[in-house]
Amino acid sequence: MQKPTRSIVDKLQRPLRDLRISVTDQCNFRCRYCMPEEIFGSDYKFLPKEKLLTFEELTRLTRIFVSLGVEKVRITGGEPLMRRDLPTFIHMISKVGRVKDIAMTTNGSLLAKHAKALKEAGLHRVTVSLDSLDDDRFGQMNGRGFKVSHVLEGIEAAAAAGLQIKVNMVVQKGTNDQDVLPMARYFREKGHILRFIEYMDVGNSNGWRLDQVLPSRDIVERIHREMPLEPVGPNHYGEVASRYRYLEGKGEIGLISSVTQAFCSTCTRVRLSAEGKMYSCLFASAGTDLRAPLREGKSDPEIRELITEFWRHRTDRYSEERLSNTPEITKKKKVEMSHIGG
Ligand SMILES: Nc1nc2c(ncn2[C@@H]2O[C@H](COP(=O)(O)OP(=O)(O)OP(=O)(O)O)[C@@H](O)[C@H]2O)c(=O)[nH]1
Ligand SMILES: C[S@@+](CC[C@H](N)C(=O)[O-])C[C@H]1O[C@@H](n2cnc3c(N)ncnc32)[C@H](O)[C@@H]1O
Ligand code: SF4
Ligand code: SF4
């Protein structure tokens, strides 16, 4: 697969191609692998409104990122649909030229209400996170007892609105690995691409252990025994998921194997937190502030220069390093997933 050429490149020759924007650090779920209730409890201090970048600030930054090579924008969070008037922001992004793909990652709980407005505003795709079809297990995993039917209704509404859909399932051995086959069967039947994500050691609060990771190759084997699969090539340079298609009939799945088969060598992703910090890796300890330069009146060329320097110095390859030094590296201080959006 060819690298995009128009973009700036980092120290490892990786182009800047994807911008992932977290629009809020708040969420109505408390997934144990992301925002465990005992840490993100009622006294947890989320960002106050004045610290969040406004839609105008986010759009201005997006335009600058696009001028440096970004073609793909993903809206995430926290739960992005908890940010008020999100369709207004989607509409603003859709007017920034040269963005080929505008997607959103959501837990789906509020999607039924907003799907139509999001599509009309210019959203192309949604990725809905769902870890089980069993209400008890799902309720436990989301930490708030939310029902599977809420999310499935969101998916139906998104499909009816004409949005392209993918479903993401984080697989945790001993917690929801019994759901791999039921989920594969269900979403194959529905015609949506299901992607299995290896449970990751993001942040410092989820108590991650390597023995809770179900390797992607085991998932493929389990599904292949019942519904034969074959690998297919990536859709584009740096695609995160490895794709497999069902040999009989239609459909495909994806495997996101950040733990057992790291994909840092083609990582083209920059992340922006809701308060305007830019991160060069999902596992970064600190971000580079863009809010102060924006609010101090820096010009577009000045901000462009800041981002260019940041990307030119980038050397991150956390998941590859984890493969060779798991015990040491996982102790490092890392930003929380709910802060930068996964
Ligand atoms: N380690 C690591 N994991 C990632 C990275 N990007 C995504 N992931 C993981 O993969 C999951 C799925 O990411 P998505 O946002 O759905 O993937 P995507 O590549 O943007 O999706 P498509 O554009 O549909 O291919 C995330 O929630 C993370 O768990 C990354 O850069 N590093
Ligand atoms: C942080 S959430 C933000 C968007 C939205 N709230 C959602 O859940 O889709 C983005 C993605 O990160 C994934 N995620 C969170 N913690 C993870 C972990 N420890 N390992 C792997 N994926 C994780 C979630 O399953 C979700 O698909
Ligand atoms: S994974 Fe998404 S839905 Fe779950 S707690 Fe994190 S931000 Fe919320
Ligand atoms: S671990 Fe960091 S460098 Fe590697 S793929 Fe993920 S975000 Fe990119």
Given this structure, which CATH class is correct?
A: Alpha Beta
Q: How far do the termini sit from each other?
A: 24 Å
Question: Percent helix among the residues?
Answer: 25-40%
Number of strands: 12
Order of helical and strand elements? EHEHEHEHHEHEHEEEEEEHHHHH
Order of neighbouring strands in the sheet with most strands: 7-8-9-6-5-4-3-2-1-10-11-12
Helix count?
A: 12
> Oligomer, anyone?
single chain
The 3D shape can be described as globular
How is the CATH topology named?
TIM Barrel
Strand content: 15-25%
Structural class: alpha/beta
CATH architecture: Alpha-Beta Barrel
The number of domains is 1
Pathway: Cofactor biosynthesis; molybdopterin biosynthesis
Keywords: 4Fe-4S, GTP-binding, Iron, Iron-sulfur, Lyase, Metal-binding, Molybdenum cofactor biosynthesis, Nucleotide-binding, S-adenosyl-L-methionine
Protein name: GTP 3',8-cyclase
Organism: Paenibacillus naphthalenovorans
Blueprint (SSEs and pairs):
Blueprint (H helix, E strand, L loop, with lengths): L17 E5 L32 H13 L4 E5 L9 H9 L6 E6 L4 H11 L3 E5 L5 H8 L5 H13 L3 E8 L8 H11 L2 E6 L17 H11 L2 E4 L9 E5 L5 E5 L12 E4 L4 E3 L8 E2 L1 H5 L4 H13 L5 H7 L1 H4 L7 H4 L2
Parallel strand pairs: 1-2, 1-10, 2-3, 3-4, 4-5, 5-6, 6-9
Antiparallel strand pairs: 7-8, 8-9, 10-11, 11-12
Bound molecules: guanosine-5'-triphosphate, S-adenosylmethionine and iron/sulfur cluster (2 copies).
